[in-house]
Amino acid sequence: MSGRTAPPRVLTVAGSDSGGGAGIQADLKTMLALGVHGMSVLTAVTAQNSLGVQGAWELPVAAVRAQYRSVVDDIGVQAVKTGMLASAELVEAVADLIAGTDAPAVVDPVGVSKHGDPLLAASALDSVRTRLLPVATVATPNLDEVEQLTGLRVESESDMRRAARAVLAFGPRWVVIKGGHLAAGADRAVDLLTDGSREHWLRAPRHDNRHTHGTGCTLASAIASQLAKGRSVPEAVAEAKEYVTGAIAAGFALGGGIGPVDHGWELGRRTRDGAAGTG
To answer: Which of 108, 111, 214, 228 has its CA 20 to 30 A from that of 143?
Structure first.
């Protein structure tokens, strides 16, 4: 007897976070929560907890390439998401793999962890600009990553528009400039999605919760999950923003530092709603 039809498939190409809040762990939790089948290509292993990154070990390019080919050639993908790609060699290898894959790609140009630990070699920045961003359907830099990539410091919404133009010049079809770090006193968290001609300003309540580890990984994975389900880029980003906003609101303390967002917040709400409906 045959099983049910497989859900849309999404592949994350990223590093491991041993603390479970970011990296491939966050990606796979997000994909499960959003109803797609998550698969992974591990690029690096980190020793990481709520206090920071204590160590990182990059995988060989051959191991990354073999994992990717193994999944894509047999199972296939409807979207690819990239995260931590520590070296220029890894960035270039992954860019080549994505260029040969007929699926949308969401590139999270991870440069620095939530704790300020560098996750990308300075020598790899140029490869991100010239090789990886040109194959991206959507790029999702935060304000620190925008400054790393373009040299532009973003302090206002008009700066976000300027930054978006600078990132788009590297070749992605769309860019989301994540304004979560903008004007921390403001009551709204604003992101700008644009392809250079259309602008979508996405605003959401700013939650007073320091437990936001994994936000960037989670947003990029949520966008990839929605693209795999056939959403347009504006629809995918809007739905991903809504999911991440809920996850941030439900973020919880873990260890002695910054805790993670709650990837299962929506599943928990559905379970509670279902239980209430049966009472």
So the answer is: 228
